[in-house]
């Protein structure tokens, strides 16, 4: 059984590969050849261990486990569907954020205008970095505006993005300054209160949220759901499984929310497309299974 570490993931999991492999899974879910139940949280010691699982019919199945401690390593295990043999595992902190970033990029590629070239990014942590890492593979970004509450972190983030990704990146003085007028907006914060007002992104054709999203603890408010022209998520099952509830799950527009699979061929819509990233279960396993095919 092979064991992949973060160094292997960084070297071999390009954004292009991650996006293509996730597209396969999203379409398999739509075609009913992929199973992805909501995640399960198990109380343990003073915290929780979280399990997500997925299965691709006739190919593989597996799970990801992690706890809620910041920086703790995650474990992803893949099994052969026919024999039950363990194919391999990945241990570290890279695979999860890159999966999240690639799923947003898949949504951008399908749902955002081709000419969207300015990104307003809220957040300067590992998840925000993975968003930028992936989105640059599907859109030519002329300008990236980054805002985070800690000025030192946002300046460090912009310097790193310029140096490692070769992008034109600037630190914005406010959240509004980062997102207003941007063709693409991504909320990748840890904030438990809304970081934007919906009116700030009225001219932004694509907005994604990947951070906190539950009633009473969310980086966006119901006003964003109200004003969106179209709402899409990577997992309707997970959207409805939060406790407390997801902000959009208890909104009057819940019935209008579409899964990503059917939306992949829909193209850009009129008004704001809101992408709610909730975590399609088992997609880290999907990436691991494909990585294990590489020499």
Describe the secondary structure blueprint for this structure.
Blueprint: E1 2-4, H1 6-12, H2 15-30, E2 34-35, E3 40-44, E4 47-56, E5 60-67, E6 74-80, E7 86-92, H3 95-111, E8 118-122, H4 126-135, E9 143-147, H5 151-165, E10 169-171, H6 175-179, E11 184-187, E12 206-209, E13 213-214, E14 217-218, H7 222-227, E15 230-233, H8 236-239, E16 258-259, H9 260-263, E17 273-276, H10 283-291
Parallel strand pairs: 1-7, 8-9, 8-11, 9-10, 11-12, 12-17, 15-16, 15-17
Antiparallel strand pairs: 2-4, 3-4, 4-5, 5-6, 6-7, 13-14
Helix pairs in contact: 2-3, 2-10, 3-4
Task: Write a structural description.
The chain has ten helices and 17 strands. The chain has 295 residues and is of the alpha/beta class. The protein folds into two domains: 2-96 and 282-291, 2-Layer Sandwich (ornithine cyclodeaminase, domain 1); 104-276, NAD(P)-binding Rossmann-like Domain (Rossmann fold).
How would you summarize this macromolecular structure in one to three sentences?
The chain is 32% helix and 26% strand.
Measure the end-to-end span.
13 Å
Record the strand order, biggest sheet: 10-9-8-11-12-17-15-16
CATH H-level homologous superfamily name of the largest domain: NAD(P)-binding Rossmann-like Domain
Question: Total strand count, please?
Answer: 17
Indicate the CATH topology of the largest domain: Rossmann fold
Mean pLDDT across every amino acid position: 97
Total individual domains: 2
What composes the largest sheet? 8 strands, parallel
- Give the class-level CATH name of the largest domain: Alpha Beta
**Helix/strand structural class:** alpha/beta
Order of helices and strands: EHHEEEEEEHEHEHEHEEEEHEHEHEH
Level of helix content? 25-40%
